[in-house]
Automatic annotation (TrEMBL):
Molecular functions (GO terms): lyase activity
Keywords: Lyase
Membership in a protein family: Belongs to the enoyl-CoA hydratase/isomerase family.
Superkingdom per UniProt: Bacteria
Name recorded for this polypeptide: Enoyl-CoA hydratase
Any GO BP: fatty acid beta-oxidation
PANTHER family: ENOYL-COA HYDRATASE, MITOCHONDRIAL, ENOYL-COA HYDRATASE-RELATED
Short name of any one Pfam family annotated for the protein: ECH_1
InterPro entries, per database record: ClpP/crotonase-like_dom_sf, Enoyl-CoA_hyd/isom_CS, Enoyl-CoA_hydra/iso
Source organism of this protein record: Williamwhitmania taraxaci
């Protein structure tokens, strides 16, 4: 499939995926979801980690309002479910996915960033869930991810007031993990990607799987599936890493 909005580029196992519809501040339209769904289902084997970013002054300024305005109730619900399914696919991808947030991450844009494993932000980034300004609510599971990520009080504050916050404020709330100068955003994000790639590859996959599965379980069941995967690394990648430590050398995975 020829992509119009997505611009993937792969170097040394890292796919940098740029969302490029700058004339509409990268607002997410149905073509974006078609392309994203296709890309997620056809990721080349060589891709070991994905970085999502936006072109221009926005990461993503939300769902495309012009596509939503005329929808019926049933169409609105279907639109929400379809977007949720694609964001869930991102979240459940077996490889790490990092959001490199270069600018506006509003509405569906903030929801996309939250579907990634973690977020590195430029000082120019702005975050918010301004849907109530439009008389709607977040529809790509942002209500659920945000309250889990930054707590109910912070999430309801942002969603009820539509306040747009700076990258530093997002850092304080735990919505992003690191804030860097705009010119260093990609360099810093790629450095983090490289760090992850140097670790036990199965372990980094499993840690994501265990956290995501566990969040949907009660504590005891969640801990049990952690133990099961912990065990699966023994006589396996775990032995390679632990033996290398004891022999004071770097592991070869
Ligand atoms: N949908 C469609 N078009 C959008 C858009 C969006 N979410 N955000 C920006 N655009 C378009 C503008 O309409 C404008 O197009 P024209 O040049 O054709 O007029 C272009 O992008 C540039 O935008 P602005 O002129 O508004 O740029 P600005 O710098 O003055 O303002 C902004 C930037 C504060 C981000 C402002 O564009 C804005 O408030 N955008 C909407 C943000 C928003 O409400 N997002 C939530 C959407 S709803 C949602 O996401 C629901 C969901 O969860 C499923």
């Amino acid at each position: 499939m020829e992509y119009q909005i997505l611009h993937p580029s792969v170097t040394d196992g890292v796919m940098v995926l740029t969302i490029s519809r700058p004339q509409a501040l990268n607002a997410l339209n149905s073509l974006f979801f078609t392309e994203m769904d296709h890309l997620l289902s056809h990721l080349p084997q060589e891709v070991k980690i994905m970085v999502i970013t936006g072109e221009g002054k926005a990461f993503v300024a939300g769902a495309d309002i012009s596509e939503m305005v005329d929808k019926s109730q049933a169409e609105g619900e279907a639109f929400s479910l379809a977007g949720q399914a694609v964001f869930r696919k991102i979240e459940q991808l077996s490889i790490p996915v990092i959001a490199a947030v270069n600018g506006y991450a509003l509405g569906g844009g903030c929801e996309l960033a939250m579907a990634c494993d973690f977020r590195i932000a430029s000082t120019l980034a702005t975050f918010g869930q301004p849907e109530v300004n439009l008389g709607i609510i977040p529809g790509y599971a942002g209500t659920q991810r945000m309250s889990r990520l930054i707590g109910k009080g912070n999430a309801l504050y942002l969603m009820m007031t539509a306040t747009m916050i700076s990258a530093d404020e997002a850092l304080r709330m735990g919505l992003v993990q690191k804030v860097v100068a705009p010119e260093l955003l990609m360099e810093e994000t790629l450095k983090i990607a490289k760090t992850i790639l140097s670790k036990g590859p199965t372990a980094t996959k499993l840690v994501k799987e265990v956290v995501n599965l566990g969040l949907a379980m009660d504590f005891d069941a969640a801990s049990k599936q952690e133990a099961q995967r912990f065990g699966s690394l023994f006589k396996n990648e775990g032995e390679v890493g632990m033996r290398a430590f004891l022999e004071k050398r770097k592991p070869t995975w």
